[in-house]
Amino acid sequence: MSLIVIGSLAFDTIETPYGRRERIIGGSCTYFSLAASFFTQPKIVGVVGKDFPVEMISLLENRGIDVQGLKIASGKTFHWEGHYGNDPNQRSTIRTELNVFKDFRPQLPPDYQTADLVFLANIDPDLQEDILFQVKKPKLVAMDTMNLWIQSKPQPLLKVLAKVDIFFANEEEIRMLTEEPNLIKAGKMILSKGPILVVIKKGEHGALVLGKDFIFVVLAHPCEEVIDPTGAGDSFAGGFMGYLDKVKSFKESEIRKAAVFGSVLASFTIEDFGMERLKSLSFKEIEKRYLQFKKLVSF
Amino acid sequence: MSLIVIGSLAFDTIETPYGRRERIIGGSCTYFSLAASFFTQPKIVGVVGKDFPVEMISLLENRGIDVQGLKIASGKTFHWEGHYGNDPNQRSTIRTELNVFKDFRPQLPPDYQTADLVFLANIDPDLQEDILFQVKKPKLVAMDTMNLWIQSKPQPLLKVLAKVDIFFANEEEIRMLTEEPNLIKAGKMILSKGPILVVIKKGEHGALVLGKDFIFVVLAHPCEEVIDPTGAGDSFAGGFMGYLDKVKSFKESEIRKAAVFGSVLASFTIEDFGMERLKSLSFKEIEKRYLQFKKLVSF
What we know:
2 copies of one chain form a homodimer. By secondary structure, the first copy, chain A, is of the alpha/beta class.
């Protein structure tokens, strides 16, 4: 099968209790595609400015990622600045400079239009809809979002939500969107709006996967040092969707495994700043941690 | 084997988003012993006033609970009032009237002094130490505590901590005690002070069980309606310790099962106000939910 992802490629300035990094590579599309590349060869859709390092694009290509849909525009790359305190689940956005992302209206290359799996990372819901419209007959569509869009564009967001199969959100986002504090109830409300699956990411507490007739709970890897939580959610989705693309099946038993692989990928991402850990990661390490997850919950 | 518990028997006035109850039966000893009574015949140590309903004591006896160590003193029973908002993990104490608990200095009945398992529920650490001193050769001692004692009596608390095998605490308490935000690190700090096991209760996110050489993660049952979170922690400990007393083994595989039974018992407690759900509960229901827990995490 084939998997496309639309999302951001970015410069991130990040401060955590473990240090500060200025303008390192980040972005939802970057984290997602690197994580997914351990299972399949994702195709990315995004835009960067002339200031984006060519080596990073080469790195993506070397990992088998299709960059045909990556536009290099004149102007500056998207820049996000965020701080984390002692609770890695809480972050404050200091600055968001959309730059080249502001006027980004992508046209999908022809062989992207026949993709089987689509991941609409956290971007403007109008842009998510626009992309989805260009894919002919996707078998499985997933989306992510963030509080910014829930507050500023609830109607366009709900329009996209009704068309997707999987909705990824964190605890705070799903509570905000549904105005329901109980996560199971909130998840069921989302299921009634279209999706067949809701994945509620809970940071250090793992994730809840709610289907129409099952619930699966996946852990976060117990971790002593969360160096940089940025990209954990996108890595989760990347591992999840990448695995499904690889196994070409969406049955419950594969969904469960996909969620564990998602959590495994996220657990590596937070071990270092930015992409560093994903860049050095091997599939052997992923498999080893997958087995550790089994042990962690077995009784 | 035999299991004793010292803790409170109380009147609780509770307000949650699901309603308000005035002066219903509560207390750590009550929840713990009822939960443990599904596995073994716990012996309780506590004090109530003349106003405590005789039917409740009969109910405990009918469940096989040994009430020899329960003193009926002249005066009023301990009274606690607490409120919960939408987040069941957050509670505010409105009032605490110690009443007969104030001058409670129990002498253990002779056949309590040879107990194998001891649970020191959340009471004054000086009282915990006093009781522990009266037990001749316990095989396994566990304790719980709360922020009140961490703040007001840190030294006596650490003295008891050094003598116990299992430390039960919730997230907030362990962070407060260790001044370490990361739960794994905080747990390891506790392990270095004496205990061989730390159980960190995380409410709706389940619990972390840290041993010297293993970590086990146990879920909370995904629950749409937390009617009343009071007693969840004590029910967890009751299921946990009751199961260990029953199987007469403290090896890792049994610890894991004990933690799941603890979480199962807690999950029933919160389904109704006070003791109501525990009173109507059957062992068949406990077994059924235990198997659901297996399914929830299997992949």
